[in-house]
Each structure stands twice: as C-alpha cells, then as structure tokens.
# Entry
Amino acid sequence: MEKKILFPQIGGLVHGGDYNPDQWLDRPDILEEDVRMMKKAGVNCVTLGVFSWAAYEPEEGNFHFEWMEKIIEKLYQNGIYTILSTPSGARPAWLDGRYIEAMRVDSRGVRDHHGKRHNHCMTSERFREKVAVIDRMLAERLGTHPGVILYHISNELGGECFCPRCVQKFQMYLAERYEYDIDRLNAEWWTSFWSHHYNTFSEIEPPFENGETSVMGLNMEWKRFTTWNMNNFMQFEIDVLRSVTPDIPVTTNFMGLFGGLDYRKMAPKLDVISWDNYPCYHNDWETFTETMSDTAFNHAVMRSMKRDKPFMMMESTPSLVNWHKVNKLKRPGVHKLSCVQAVACGSDSVQYFQWRKGRGSYEQFHGAVVDHAGTDDSRVFRDVAEAGELLKKLAPVAGTTVSTRAALLFDWDNRWAIWDVKALGQETKKYERTCIGIWQEFMKLGIDMDVVGSDEDLSRYDVVVAPMLYLLQPGTADNLRAFVERGGQLLATYFTGYVDDAQLCYLGGFPGDGLKELFGIVSEEIDSYYPSDRNGIAMKDGSRWEVVDYAEILRVQDAEVLGTYTDDFYQGSAAVTCKSHGKGNAYYVAARTSAGEMRPLFEKMLADAGISVRKLPEGVEYHVRSGEEGSYEFYLNCNTEPVKIAGVNGLDMVTDREVREEMTLPGYGVAVIRQ
# Structure
C-alpha cells in the first residue's frame, strides 16, 4: 500500500497549532521567544491568520501584509512551516458597518449584529467581493512563500442565514432541484396535509422559527440547501486561491459530528480532511475510556471521508478549554495518550488551539502551550514537548493509512430525518449514541470500522452495520442487497427503511424498497417504551438481552429466528432474525439493547467474514496503520493502572525495545509496535 505523505517538506507528522502573532506585534521580544520555545517543543508547523483580517486591512483598502511576511519568513528560517488561513471567519467592524448585508439574519428574521460567531452571509455579493480581494492578496503576497504548505479556508464553517437573498437563493435551489415542477414538490412534501400547498416556488419560505416548521420535506431541503450554500461559499474561496497558487492544497476545519452541515458533501472539494477535537475528558457522566472511544469514533468519521490518505487533527487543547460547562484540566499522561490516539486513528497531525494564551477577551483562559507566565517549564509545556519528541520517533508512520474490512453506516440526511420525525420517544431517539455504541463494541474487539454513508461503495468491506437506517437514499437498498449477495455480513436494526429521501413513508410494509425481501421480515408495529419499561430477548444460544426504549413487532416471512421477546403481548414473537441471501447473511435486530449484549452476534459476523478479533484488556484501544514498508500496531491504555497485553511482537517505537509475546503498559501508557 503506497504511502500518501501529506507534506513532503515536513516528511513526518505535523506538530503545532494556531498561532496569533498579531496579538503581540507590540512585543517583539515575545515573538522572538515564541520561536525559541516552538523549537524546544518540537513544533514544525503553525496555523496563521485565522482571525487576522483587521490586522491585514484595518481600514477598507488599506492593506498591511508586511508583518505577516516577516513572521512566515522567521518561522521558515527556523524549520517551522505555515498553514495559512483565509480570514473570512472573523470580519472587521468597518466591513459590517459599511456592508450590513454581510451579517446573517436569524431564524426569527432578525439581522445579527457585528461580532457574532458564524455570522457571515454565504450569499452576500458584497461580502464575497471583499473576501475575494483579501484572499487574492494573501495568495499573491504570502502564498508564494516556500514556508506555506496548506491553505485553511475560513474557520469552523457552520450556521445558516435567513436573509432575503438567502431565501431567494433557496427558492431558486428548490426550483432547480425539482426541475421547476411545483406539483412534484407538493407531492414529495405531502403538502395536501394541513393545507400546505404551494402554487409557486416564490411562495416557499425557509423554516423560520415563527413560521412553517411542520413540513418535513421543507425542513430537510433547508438543511440540504444550507450545506449546498456553504459548500458554494467554500468553493468560491478555494477558486480565488487556486487562481493564484494552484499547487497549494486546501482544507477547512470540521467540527466532529456537527449537525448543521453534511460534511460528506463538502469533503470532495478539499485536498485534506481536518477537524477540531475537544472531548470532555474526566467528566461525571461517562468513563474516561468511553470518552476516548467517543473521540476515536469522531476520528473514524473524518478518516472515512478520504479513506486512502491521512487526515489532520487541526485543533485540540494541550490542557483545557474555556467553553465547556466545566473546564477541567487534562490529567498527567492524558495529553500524550490523546495525541497518539489521533495518529493511531489515521491523523498525520497533532495541532493545538492555541500556542500562547491571550491577555484578554473571550479565550483568554482557553488552554495553550504557553501560559500567561510565558515560560517553558510548565507541566503543559513539558507535556507538549514530550509529545513533540514522540511524534519525531513516529515519523515513519506518516502517509500510512488505516485499512479495515468493516463499516458502520451513518448518514447526515438520516440523522436530520430522525431528529425531525414525530414518532418514537422524543427524548430517546439517540441515533448518534446508538451508532457510537455499536462502533465502540467493535473497537473493543480490536476492529476499526470506517464510518460511511449508505450510498457509498461497500465493495471494500465484508461486515456492515446499519443502525436505525430510517431514511433510505436512492440506491441504498440495491447497495445493501449487492453487498450481501457477494458474501457480506449485514446487520440492521429497528427503525430501518421507513421513508425515502423525501421522507415519504414506504407503502406495503417496512422496511421498504425491497429490504423486506432482503431481511425476510416485515415490521408491523414499533413499541416505544417509557424509561421504566423493560422487555427481554431470549436468544437461541441461551443468552438473554435486555430491551429498552424500542421494540418492533415482526412478521417473519422466510428468515431464521435467532431470538424472541420474553414479555408483553408480543411475547414469543421474533426479535432477532437472520436470512441468508446469495453468499452472505442479513441480520435484523428489532429492539434496542446494549451493544455489549450484541457482541456474540458481532463476533459471529466477523468470523463468517474471516476477520480475526483481538483479545484486549478492558480499557485498551488497538489500531493498525499500514503502508508499503509494513504495519504499525498502536496500543493505548486508557486505564490509570498498568495492564498486561499478550500476543505482542515487534519493535516498540516509543521505548525502542523489542517486545516478545507480552507487554506491560503503564497507566495512560502507549506503545507503537512496528511489524
């Protein structure tokens, strides 16, 4: 497998983070000290200019780039490269004062004031004109410098705008999407209900908070449009930069499972996928191991958007954040553990927000490598320097990828539809939590899973799990059927195949679009439980599963029954089934149960697919990255106490020692075994 080195200039893993020298232009001594300490911490790359528009252009048309030129050159002379950001994520006051249309209108029709986060209107022509000017000048003045290796588009793109221009653009979007056929839109949105009928596209408004919010088709299309509109804006910035410097790759920093945009629709326009990682470590609602595995799931989502090349962890904190409900410090050892986890899951970078704490404003107490004391002898600085040394050791890992034969289906459209549907228990839908729980159970077996869309090519996988696939994209059913026929092991759950991509219910029984035949069952009813309700499933192997939240009542057509309900009026009816189809098997789990109880079923699916599981102590993560020269096994001990791990052989790149058969990892310890 050929390596895909993201940045040949660096050659190894990227280590650095957001640097804001424009906050310290009156302190050249601090800027000089920053370079010295960056080298000591093993920093080889920084992100510059994320919030620098006012420093570049303090007044309209009055540009100052010389200060940034000097910073980039100084860093470059010291072996530190630059990720150069466009400043569109934070507009100067003069722009909003002169071009009010640049600011968004909220869901009640009220225009925002200057300064609010995620506040630019994606449609505003005036704003685009000003962005084009600053971006082009950035590319001309700074992008040609050999120290610039990547463009960072804006910052954490997100949000929506309800201004008149965006409303009009939405109407045009709908007209094109529905081929100027308003009757088709009315049919797919089921507007005959509650007299929602539209005569023209110009009558359609977005789902204002104080307006129409009960038409599911409207709500869905508005979210799709918002993604399309943001994608269009992002592409506009990319086009400006490429017109000047076509060879510099581009990225933008995604925000994990952010629900406002379908990142998969934006990923193809980017050369590198990157994201900002801020877990709530050491919280009081889950174990530390669960927090770590939640983070691993997010890494997998990002990795899976471009499966054949590494991604980047663009931001993380070396200590704490300032915007969680409780801003708790990372405990000793956790920083190294979290850094190595990112690399283990496929990232070729460990980057921080931020390098140095500012003296004032909103993020003055947000964690940073350099505290207000300004020294290089703090606990946090030592942690970062230790990570920097370790990442140098792990340089050969750069360009390798995580290759897996298992995938979990996770769709943004499906997610939005479940959020909006007036069914089930409104407080217990938990689509994301259900997906993550199943994914984590596979990880406990030493199996990394990609996280992919239901319309993606599944030919590289042998095991696929599709939790709560309520909405079916066009072609999804055919995709799943072909996967099983060629020998794939497929598992779906309750609430699968109820609606099409217009959110119209399938007629003829659920799951629709031919999935009844694939699974050999019909879901006739779904029972939603109160928090105190319980049921059980008696499996043929003698095990018992507890049922919470939801239970579908099935009519079995030609599937094998593997488990039946133990209680209620549907006692004895099918709850878990399997149907062989072609060379593969299609499993259906009709009720919500814990992923841990489903583990034997997962193990059977893996065994039938010829995939070996890895026996791991509780709280130990295992990941593998591979390249043309071999593989790298990552072991992460998420426990505070030491653990022994059997069956390990090879060179530990962390300790530079050979391991034979057994290895002991200290609390929060890591090992990277080169095969």
Notes: DSSP finds 17 helices and 25 strands in the chain. The longest helix spans residues 216-244.
